[in-house]
Write a sequence for this structure.
């Protein structure tokens, strides 16, 4: 009889793969969050948007939302904050002011260029614990799990949470 890893057939919280991912994100991600918030006054979502804009140059807000994996409402809030901080510029399209393009400002580009090497160093420090063959295997496994998650989401999307997340009857 083949023994299965506990992540394949979870019984308790500690057996859930997604729980372990969340704990990893909390532990490793907190270093980046502290760096962004404490050192540069930006949130992790603002950092994500700066990275996407740095890599793509110019995007419409809807494209930015899609590439940053955020809904349009959150994207709008983050863009508003980045505009207020002078890290992003908005250019209206000629003939259609609603179709704006977003890009990094000079200050946004400078912040990105200063912060990225520090985040890369954190990433390297985490990855240095794995030999190259294990890192390659992990990357391959994550790609397969990600593809499967997308298949599952498309075949049976979970219900959306109500906007008012309070329990019925709660005030």
């Amino acid at each position: 009889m083949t023994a299965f890893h506990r992540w394949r057939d979870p019984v308790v919280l500690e057996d859930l793969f997604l729980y372990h991912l969340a704990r990893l994100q909390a532990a490793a991600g907190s270093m980046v969050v502290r760096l962004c918030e404490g050192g540069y006054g930006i949130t992790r979502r603002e950092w994500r948007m700066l990275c996407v804009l740095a890599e793509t140059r110019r995007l419409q807000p809807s494209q930015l939302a899609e590439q940053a994996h955020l809904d349009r409402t959150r994207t709008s809030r983050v863009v508003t904050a980045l505009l207020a901080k002078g890290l992003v510029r908005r250019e209206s399209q000629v003939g259609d002011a609603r179709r704006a393009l977003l890009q990094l400002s000079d200050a946004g580009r400078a912040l990105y260029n200063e912060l990225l090497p520090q985040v890369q160093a954190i990433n390297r420090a985490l990855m240095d614990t794995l030999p190259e063959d294990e890192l390659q295997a992990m990357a391959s496994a994550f790609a397969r799990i990600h593809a499967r998650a997308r298949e599952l989401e498309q075949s049976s999307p979970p219900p959306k949470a109500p906007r008012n997340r309070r329990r019925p009857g709660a005030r």
User: Anything to note?
Assistant: The chain has a mean pLDDT of 89. Strands lie at 58-59, 88-93, 96-104.
